[in-house]
Amino acid sequence: MKKNMIKNLKVYFMIVNVILGIIAFSYIISAPTGTDMGNNEGTTIPGSGTNTNIPGGTVINDNPNGDSTGVGTDNTNTGDGTGGTGTGTGDPINGGWGTGNINFQSIIMKAGIGVGIFSTIGSLAGGENGALWGSVAGAIGGVVAGLAEGFGIGPVWSSIIGLSVATIIFILTYYKKSTQVVEFGCLPWQAPVGGDYCQMCNNYKECSEYTCKSLGQACDIINAGTPQQKCIWKNPNDVNSPIIKMTKVSKNHTWVPNNAVRPPATGVIIKNQLSSDGCLKAYTPLEFTFTTLDTGTGVGEPSQCKIDYVLTTTTATNNSKSLYDDMTYYVGGDDLYAYNHTEKLALPGPDAINAVAPVLKNNGEYTLYIRCRDANGNFNVDAFSVNFCVQKGPDTTAPAIVGTNIESNKPILFNQTKLNLEVYVNEPSECRWSRTDIRYDYMENNMTCDTNVWEMNNNLVYTCRTVLTGIQDRKENDYYFRCKDQPFASEGDRNVNQQSYHYVVIGTQPLNIMSITPERGSTISGSTDTIPVFLTIETDNGYKDGEALCYYSKGNPAKEEDYILFANTSSSHHNQRQDLISGNYSYYFKCVDLGGNSAYNSTNFKVDTDKREPVVVRVYRDIGELKIITDENAECSYSLKNCNFEIESGIKMTSFNGKIHTTEWKFNQNYYIRCMDNYNNQPNPNTCSIIARPSKIEPIMQAIEL
Description:
41 strands; Immunoglobulin-like; 7 helices; 15% helix
């Protein structure tokens, strides 16, 4: 109401000024040039060319070109004056400086008067460059009035024409700039209040819990998991609204019941335990939590809660149901039905608010109104109030830099010399940075800051944006920030940081992939249809000696998003298991460190399935030993009884190079030998790889007679 009243007063004031301007404009501009201005010396107005009867003087001559000489006497004075001299054919009546019927002196005078009048109106009316556009409109109007009078239109009508033109131009060019804050939010969809549509779920062949609860907040499943599973309206006769109970408040704050609230409404007063008056410190975050309880049982009841600075009431155009819907904000910024609800806010002091919005003076006293609605749509008509005050008086505290969007002491990409950074301040401020720790006034680089009270972000802080330059590789780069608060206050009232906020950017070097297994061109074998293959990568350099995250892709990836993160990574050693069937494979790898440095590499290998047991390809005696040779690397053992034994429990044969196996040579002794390869391929039970029996053969002597 106060805001509208002030706006109306401004409009009335502007109208009065326009009326006064019209009167002054008409009178001054329509006054004939060269009229008697009360000069008792008996001279004409210089340059006017208009004969003026001087008291006690007599006109001698009247020259059409504007020359006139007056000589006369009175009782005490002698008048002697010379009229102005026109150029070309001046006005024979009014004289003046001009060409033809156009009197430039008159035009300039009228334009000047128009500029003065309309610039004043524009300045008083405000708006975007109101005084400038008022001057333009007045000047054009004055020129039009002068031209109209020169072409024979009377002084009154020429003044009206000029005034009309000036007014039209002023109206067309004048505008006021205003800032309107529009808030929007994306909230999850919520099922309708109540349970009017619960039974619809039972018309389907299957009514799932998800479908049931999507039809209404009060819908629920009964006989879950049985053929008689149904969706019903749980507690349809519930008409009790939730009870709001405060449970927690920020550290160093407390709450007490607000006895000034008239029942059935309830509320609390939050106080700052560190201040003598209990008021909160300006721009300090306040957080409080409350729970919602069922009126009848006193146990927790999931509810949806809204909060507002204005207490909504019923009117002739709305009903009690709209009391909840008309509230502006959801508690905590979400519309979920929950037992506990937390609200966080930070408010400026009264001086800061009054500096930008004088009509909103509240002397630092705030009351928040809360209503909560249960699943059946019941809400507390009498709002729960939270009352607190913010400290008054001048702001004597320097702003606090509370953080940045990129943490300090973090690495940056190799060869990157600039960094876009956001700096967060607890109150509207102007901030600067430098490479050295110096006073705010001496810092060379300005940040772009949100300086209006209403530009607080979701984390209840104000954002300053800048670009840090001159970043060097392979070293720590130091930066220093300082801020000055109250951007719209006089310099003497502002507070500046006496200590800098130290920020460090770590320059890095390129990241390298040092090794990959399986190696390029290798073969991985196994005895099963699916063979486990372990991808292994070693990284180095970059940030922190190769500490990185590594990704893989089976085949050449079409885009970066096709890479898959290793199961074991985030150090300089990375591995990932893959279970593969027989075939040829190509894998591509990407590793990225914390600074954004990346390295790429690839490998290809073959997977071979080996299900065949080792084969003994040769057996013989060699230097007094029984020796067998297998067609692949194997482990062999024997029994002196039969083939029915486990290879691990048999008598081990000595192996050389995996394929040569030996044991002692005993005549007429049966050796039941079983062999197993590296993939556990072996003969079937009670089956030998070979049975060997050493024997002695006498040499046959044959005499050959010659």
